[in-house]
Amino acid sequence: MPHLRAWLELWAARAFDFVDGADKSAIYQRAVLAAVDAPETERLLGKRAGVDRDAVVERMTTTRYHRYTTLRCPSSLLDRAIEDLAEVRDRHERAARATQWDWRVVCSLVAAVSFALLIFSGPLALLIAVVVAAVTMVTLFIWRGSRLWANLTQCLIAAGLKGAWLLQRIEVGACAARWGEELQETGTGPVVADLVRHMLGDDPDSLFIPDDYEWGLRAPRAPGFIIENAARRQLERKLTHLEDGTIAVCGPRGAGKSTLLEQCVKKAGFGVIVQAPATYAPHDFLLSLSVQLCEKYMRARGYEPTGFARLSPARRALRRVRLQAKRLSRWSSFAVPATALVVLGLSASVRSLYEQYATSVSDVARTYTDALRSDVTAIWQGHTVVASLAVTIGGIVWWQSRHTALLPRMLGRLWTRGIRPIGLLLAWASAATLLLDEQIRQRARYLHNTQPEALYQAVGYAVGLLFLWSFLRLIRDSEVEFPLGRRHIFLETIFRPISAAVGIYLLLFLITNPQIRSLLADPENPLRLAGIIAGFLLSKLGDWQPQSEEPELVTRCQNHLYRLQTIQQATHGLTTGSTAQIMSLGTNHSASVSTVPPNYPELVEEFRELLRCIATERTEAGKTVVIAIDEVDRLGADTDALAFLREIKAILGVPLVHYLISVAEDVGAAFVRRGLPHRDATDSSLDDIIHVQPSTLSDSRAILARRSQTLKEPHILLAHALSGGILRDLLRYGLQLRETQDKTQSYELTDISRQLILEELAETFAGFRTLLGKLQWSHDTSGVLASFRTLSSYLRDPCPCVEADVLRTLDHFAFHAYGAHPLPATADDSSHRPPDDPEISGSARQLIDEASTYAYFSLTLLDIFSTDGLERRTELAAGHGQEGDPERLADARQELGISPYSARPLIDSIRKAWSLPLGPDPDSRIPASTARCPRHGSHPNIP
């Protein structure tokens, strides 16, 4: 619908410009309004004071902007067309003043008389009348001095010039429409956009104006939003150059390893992706992988794996019977009535045809049968030696062909290639007999001689309905859809009932029209219809092929699935005895056989052999085979991951198969330092490794630009800095910007970033408090936990009354490099902070230092993003070299995951490049506000 609306608005603007024509000011005004109402410009209006629709239109109508805009789009063609129009209008007015008659009345009478003569008397009478009138008026002008000829001539000249003026007016309208469209595209469009950005002031891109629905952010794994990155290109190169092998994909959690594996499996010719279990058992893992491999291969070959239902054989049989009965009843509800109607309609014609040709056909069949019987008898009695040799050789050839199936294949090829032309020939020949039927030809000649108009009108109407029905069916069969709100409407839904109604109406018209009905009443028409139906049925038989034999590899997969997912048990019994009238003696012997499930070595061997066969077949077809094992890094420590690799090492190294395994960074580091100083499982399990690094700023910019149209450069910088380039967190912060904007009801990045950073800081402090709560604390040191709780609650929903005190406390804690001291609840408690408490353990000190450094990083983001003039300050920071690059903010966030002691110097260098203080300065980030606190009724910072 947006495309339809834009198309309608475009043609409406062209129509209005065409009507206005020479009024360039009206065209300019309309172009200005269209540019102001453009979606990208309209969404910026009203977001800051003084920037609304009326203000922009008023600025654009000033002489300065009018002249500047029109100079960008010259109107020389329109001006020349307007001058030509004025010249033609002046000539027309002079011609109209030169005559004593009203040229409109005279020309109308001349046109009416000429048209009447043309209709009622023909073109020859009109030509004679024109010549006579011209000779008469010239004679009167010469001999009598009459001005009839002069007045008539001037009237005709005035009419011709009026026609020329009309054509020139159309030219002016066309030039005006073209100029208006060009003015909007290259003139008012960019000028209005630049003017609005200028009126917005500093950082116009920092305005966050969300759309109603950001599908790319709400669905992180939605298809269509994946972009190329260095890791994916590197992995594709390795898969291209390696014939087979095991490649590890390592990187931090959330960096996109799973997405990378999914894309590689999807792009491969045949692939399986399996999740590593959190508590793994090698036998169960390989069992699950084997089942997925077999099922995936069978579906790829077009065979559905057998479902082993948890029902008794009787219930399965009843369900199967019920399904077959349901299908049969539905098929019969259509087949039985259709067959009955066709048989009822064609029965008389078929019976007459049978009665006419049955005797002849039976005589021919009897003749050939007798000849065949005599030949067989002669061969049996040995009268034809050559025929005996030929039959014997034929039998040997037939037996030898059981392996190659040459003869059945040749017969099948002859069937598929010959039956279709025969059927179509029968159908077209049956239809062509209509033209050769003498009765139909006589009836058509009779209608042509007696009722020609009615006949041709009926035929034309029927042909028109036939073409309309065919056109509607063509549209119905097209897979075209168009959006209607949130729904997508297919043309098939609309045109199917319309085409059916037109077809029924065509059939009723053919039956009820007397002329066509007389042609349809020929007695041989049912026989022709039977021939047409038989021909099309024969042509359809050419598409039938016997069901192909199940491939051997599919059968192996089916048997493997059956063995893995079922327990087979067989019981054999034997009863012997003798009976008499009084007593009987007998014995009963029973034996039970149950298959043993495959053990781990046997399962490994079967899996490798099956996978090797699949890989050989797929490789011969030009496809690659990829087995991806995801989520190995969730097993826990690197020792668990290495133990898992040692257990599944037996299934690796299958020829022509690529294994992709996602592992944690520490496992990747073990592979990189292989042989130093000792070997581990990675040395012999992995052939190569791919490092999925966090996204760079350019990658984050491309990812978020693909998924959202509302995230501009400042928002991307903030999301990239908070996430550290981790893809999962990047998308989460992109969506959280929308949630924070909805919460704050502000479009300014300064307000949104402030709220978002403080909320993240509060959640992080709550997490640190949870970790600290697992340690041992005494009565004297437990104030640290209470301080963390107080800061978390204040930061999550800061009250204006204590906001200044909380930010001062947070500022002091962030710049306090070694957090061994308990945190005060407010700044007033800072003077009562106790000295270093030796009872705080080293683990607690480590956690407090990490929290302090994270607070230092968060306050740095607050200083950068919650202050006006971000664009200007970004340019100034870039002048300080690498430390002023916004990419360094993400580097600092990544460094926090390694050590707080290495992250703090990096943050110091960033603050220096951004000209931020290297000591406590909380007053710089406290917003100036005099509003009363909604909770306590007092003013901020006033007790």
Binned strand content: 5-15%
Order of strands, main sheet, comes to: 2-7-8-1-9
Roughly what is the average pLDDT, rounded to an integer?
76
Largest sheet entry: 5 strands, parallel
Compute the number of helices.
Answer: 36
Low-confidence stretches: 578-585, 675-679, 817-838
Q: Which structural class fits the helix and strand makeup?
A: alpha/beta
Number of domain units: 5
Distance between the termini: 58 Å
Shape: flat
- The beta-strand count equals 9
What's the alpha carbon Rg, rounded to whole Å? 45 Å
The percentage helix is: 55-70%
Walk me through the structure.
The chain has 943 residues and is of the alpha/beta class. The protein has five domains: 2-100 and 147-201, no CATH class; 229-303 and 600-691, Rossmann fold (3-Layer(aba) Sandwich); 313-404, no CATH class; 438-521; 697-925, no CATH class. 67% of the residues lie in helices and 6% in strands. It is built from 36 helices and nine strands. The strands form three sheets. Strands 2-7-8-1-9 form a five-stranded parallel sheet, with helices on both faces. Helix 7 (103-120) packs across helix 9 and helix 28 crosses helix 29 (727-744).
Write the layout of secondary structure elements.
Layout: H1 2-20, H2 24-36, H3 39-42, H4 53-60, H5 63-72, H6 76-97, H7 103-120, H8 123-144, H9 148-200, H10 215-218, H11 230-241, E1 245-250, H12 257-267, E2 270-275, H13 282-300, H14 313-381, H15 385-404, H16 406-436, H17 438-450, H18 452-477, E3 481-484, E4 487-490, H19 491-512, H20 514-520, H21 525-541, H22 552-565, E5 569-579, E6 584-594, H23 600-620, E7 625-630, H24 638-648, E8 657-663, H25 665-672, H26 681-685, E9 688-691, H27 697-707, H28 713-723, H29 727-744, H30 749-773, H31 783-796, H32 803-815, H33 842-865, H34 870-878, H35 887-896, H36 900-913
Parallel strand pairs: 1-8, 1-9, 2-7, 7-8
Antiparallel strand pairs: 3-4, 5-6
Helix pairs in contact: 1-2, 1-9, 2-9, 5-9, 6-9, 7-8, 7-9, 13-22, 13-23, 14-21, 16-21, 17-18, 18-19, 27-28, 28-29, 28-35, 29-30, 30-31, 30-33, 32-33, 33-35, 33-36, 35-36
